[in-house]
Inverse folding.
């Protein structure tokens, strides 16, 4: 992939360029918003990585200008501004994804590879659901049968991952790597504890259980009513 990094922090940009190059991608760099907009408008890129706070023209301004031009190159905002309202603002300005700093490079790489696979013009998914359970990724609100369910950050991340893989078995290794960012087994019952807490919140007071334990394999959110 050919990727444009629009970032004024030279150290951060250099680290990104190095990591992307090692992953087999071609990375160009613009250190201010005006240069970034010019490069993005006149060159062909598979993905844009855009900081929000930039000299001359901020990241939201870049994305608004590109979208007004009809340029739909997938764009990921990479910013220290990570509050929900700030993410919503970025997505509404034209970003396809939003990742807050600090971040894990493996997650960034997975996200930009996902953006590159997405058909042009496909909207960013902001809601997940399974039967009567709904999750809004922008407001971070979870409801079941209209009743709001309050989740802790780790519980939210766990449920999000399960919903993204609904009707498929999710193994303990997959959870450790994608929810806890562990690439080894810590030999603790951390997964069991969080699964139990999550099940108590999304299933306990409802007639139908969504979160299943698949003996000897892992866990599954059952979205298919059949």
């Amino acid at each position: 992939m050919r990727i444009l990094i629009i970032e004024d922090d030279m150290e951060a940009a250099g680290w990104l360029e190095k990591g992307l190059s090692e992953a087999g991608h071609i990375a160009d760099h613009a250190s201010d918003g005006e240069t970034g907009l010019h490069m993005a408008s006149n060159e062909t890129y598979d993905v844009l990585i855009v900081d929000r706070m930039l000299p001359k023209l901020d990241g939201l301004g870049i994305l608004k200008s590109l979208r007004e031009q009809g340029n739909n190159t997938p764009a990921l905002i990479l910013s220290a501004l990570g509050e929900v309202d700030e993410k919503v603002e970025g997505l509404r300005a034209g970003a396809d994804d939003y990742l807050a700093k600090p971040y894990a490079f493996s997650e960034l790489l997975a996200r930009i590879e996902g953006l590159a696979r997405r058909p042009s013009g496909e909207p960013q998914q902001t809601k997940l659901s399974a039967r009567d359970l709904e999750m809004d990724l922008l407001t971070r609100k979870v409801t079941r049968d209209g009743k709001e369910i309050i989740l802790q950050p780790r519980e939210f991340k766990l449920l999000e991952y399960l919903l993204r893989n609904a009707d498929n078995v999710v193994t303990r290794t997959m959870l450790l790597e994608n929810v806890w960012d562990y690439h080894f087994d810590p030999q603790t019952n951390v997964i069991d504890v969080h699964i139990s807490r999550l099940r108590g919140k999304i299933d306990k007071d409802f007639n139908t259980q969504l979160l299943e334990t698949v003996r000897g394999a892992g866990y599954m959110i059952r979205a298919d009513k059949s």
Remarks:
- The chain has a mean pLDDT of 89.
- The chain has two domains: 2-117, 127-221.
